[in-house]
DNA sequence: CTCATTTCTTAACTTAAGTGAACGGGTTAT
DNA sequence: ATAACCCGTTCACTTAAGTTAAGAAATGAG
């Protein structure tokens, strides 16, 4: 399990054994049951998550309806914007499947960053890369139709379509569950 | 003009006079005419932009149509994702108005970052903050209708609706120019 | 100033998403 | 075993966005 984390980190910086041991001593790993809510709307939190195994999602409750906006799977990192902005959260985080997560909090991160300046560099590279990815995703979303978004998702994250309930996928694609159902039926008809 | 840049930087770190002078000696400022294309699709570039005055936009050309996905105005910073990923650009950047920009390139940034580690910290904070903002914008986009997006834009960036051509705003809102025109007419009717 | 181009609007028609309701399959709890 | 619930699908209907086309208004270049 540790190796997944170290493999991820090695994409940005290289660690000595001492540094690896320092990380391990922080006791970051946590296993969580499907359905567990990690963060609630209104809650103050300073936790960040890294998915070692499983899938978590962020969702809002708007007019009593769940609106899922993101899924994080193996090797994905998530720091809620409420943690960055030090505001109460406006969304929820919950586990779509049983998960193994690495959970850190901002105090720990500040401490590690000052002890090992290397981590500061990793954080910068990681945020820059995630920002670039987020912009690409947003641009693709804006410039395509629901159908194109669904086909795009089938290409890029085919696993999601299998492991996530349809109604959660629908709001992720910016549409209602009924529309996703119809859209899929339409596509099946086209093929034949 | 320099003061706008220093005001911006002071939100993240504090600078000594020496550091300020080092920045000024880099000769960053550039004035650019409306319509100038700063970056073309396919081009390799390592330039980042900070808007001191004016407005620039990013757009794709898809099936011969311009699709505008973002506007950057006073105090906004833009590093194209192609610069982060060291790939040829897939979009264009052009000036919506006459602009005064601060233009830096990644070599300069690397040098400044190693000379003044403080800048590394600023870059991390800035990217984290921008990522948080981008996620909020994306979530809002996904969870709202074109009409709600337009009303939201009127609230958050009323200046944009004035200074930017409608057809560019339309694709920014994820719809066609004709639909934006109709949507606006519909809203005017509702009011009365 | 004038011509050409671009931008915005309007209209008629097509297509797809939103809405409300109903149904069946599956799971869970009692 | 059965009732309650959740989920995905389907249907009929409404609403809004896409499409094509035309024309008016504004802009820019010569």
Description of the structure:
2 copies of one chain form a homodimer. Chain A is of the alpha+beta class. Chain A folds into 2 domains: 2-123, Jelly Rolls, CATH 2.60.120; 144-192. Helices cover 50% and strands 22% of the residues of chain A. The first copy, chain A, is built from 9 helices and 8 strands. Chain A has helices at residues 2-9, 17-24, 81-85, 106-115, 117-142, 146-156, 158-163, 166-172, 177-191; strands at 29-32, 37-39, 47-53, 56-62, 65-72, 77-78, 92-95, 99-105. In chain A, the strands form 2 sheets. Chain A has a 4-stranded antiparallel beta sheet with strand order 1-8-3-6. In chain A, strands 2-7-4-5 form a 4-stranded antiparallel beta sheet. In chain A, helix 4 crosses helix 5 (117-142) and helix 8 crosses helix 9. The longest helix of chain A is centred in the C-terminal third of the chain and has 26 residues, at 117-142. Chain A is globular, with a radius of gyration of 18 Å. Chain A starts with a helix and ends with a helix. The model of chain A has no long low-confidence stretch (mean pLDDT 94). The structure holds a DNA duplex (30 and 30 nucleotides). Chains A, B: This is Crp/Fnr family transcriptional regulator. Chains A, B: InterPro entries: cNMP-bd_dom, cNMP-bd_dom_sf, RmlC-like_jellyroll. Chains A, B: Residues 11-88 form the Cyclic nucleotide-binding domain.
Please write out the topology:
The structure is a homodimer of 192-residue chains.
Chain A: H1 2-9, H2 17-24, E1 29-32, E2 37-39, E3 47-53, E4 56-62, E5 65-72, E6 77-78, H3 81-85, E7 92-95, E8 99-105, H4 106-115, H5 117-142, H6 146-156, H7 158-163, H8 166-172, H9 177-191
Antiparallel strand pairs in A: 1-8, 2-7, 3-6, 3-8, 4-5, 4-7
Helix pairs in contact in A: 4-5, 8-9
The structure holds a DNA duplex (30 and 30 nucleotides).
Organism (chains A, B): Lacibacter luteus
Pfam families (chains A, B): cNMP_binding (PF00027)
InterPro entries (chains A, B): cNMP-bd_dom (IPR000595), cNMP-bd_dom_sf (IPR018490), RmlC-like_jellyroll (IPR014710)
């Amino acid at each position: 399990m540790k190796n997944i984390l170290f493999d991820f980190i090695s994409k940005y910086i290289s660690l000595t054994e001492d540094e690896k041991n320092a990380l391990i001593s922080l006791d970051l790993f946590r296993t969580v049951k499907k359905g567990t809510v990690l963060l609630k709307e209104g809650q103050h939190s300073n936790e960040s998550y890294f998915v070692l195994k499983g899938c978590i999602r962020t969702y809002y409750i708007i007019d009593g309806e769940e609106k899922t906006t993101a899924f994080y799977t193996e090797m994905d990192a998530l720091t809620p914007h409420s943690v960055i902005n030090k505001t109460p959260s406006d969304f929820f985080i919950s586990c779509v499947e049983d998960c193994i997560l690495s959970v850190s909090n901002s105090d720990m991160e500040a401490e590690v960053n000052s002890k090992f300046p290397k981590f500061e560099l990793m954080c910068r590279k990681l945020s820059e890369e995630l920002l670039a990815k987020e912009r690409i995703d947003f641009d693709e979303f804006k410039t395509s139709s629901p159908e194109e978004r669904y086909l795009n998702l089938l290409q890029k994250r085919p696993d999601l379509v299998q492991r996530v309930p349809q109604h959660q996928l629908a709001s992720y694609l910016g549409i209602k569950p009924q529309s996703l159902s119809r859209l899929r039926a339409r596509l099946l008809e086209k093929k034949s």
